[in-house]
């Protein structure tokens, strides 16, 4: 056997030996292995634990009336006409309006609250105040706070864009009726009494006037 053939056989043997050594050191790749760049990308992007579901119930509405109720539908239509309207904001305003209107009525001073009363409500309040004055009676009252407030009902007239919202109040106050000599003939200046009222407020949505009018009262 000549020298070139022997040299080729020796080189082939060395190559086979090196290949076998590399397999033992590095191992073999079976199946699909992700490239380093892809693995790094998955590690650097944390998996989302939840999905945001759009088009769910409006909590500003369902926190105050049952979902899918007529009142909820009416409130949703109010929002479509006037997107800036919020039920929670309305109830916050109703809380302040209740104290202001109730105490003005108790004290017989209706001038301040007249812009917030429907005509027939104002006339009813004025008649009661005038009757007290005719008898020489005055009321000494102090507002303590609102113990309970809840949205009782809501309606919306699409043609007129007229919204009506009914709210139940349970207020706490002291109230004493005095005669023309100043003597207390009813109530007390220290005993706290609870007063329950159901008031309906109305407003035409989508107008520049933000004020709601008190259009009906009941116990």
Features:
Nuclear Transport Factor 2, Chain: A, 219 residues, four-stranded antiparallel sheet
Report a brief summary of the structure:
With 219 residues, this protein is of the alpha+beta class. The protein has helices at 3-26, 36-44, 59-62, 70-81, 87-107, 119-134, and strands at residues 138-157, 162-178, 184-204, 213-218. It contains six helices and four strands; from the N terminus they run ααααααββββ.
Describe the structure.
With 219 residues, the chain is an alpha+beta fold. The chain has a domain at 66-218: Nuclear Transport Factor 2, Chain: A, CATH 3.10.450. It is 39% helix and 29% strand. It has six helices and four strands. The protein has a four-stranded antiparallel beta sheet. A hairpin with a 4-residue loop joins strand 1 and strand 2. The protein is elongated, with a radius of gyration of 39 Å. The model is unreliable at 20-53 (pLDDT under 50).
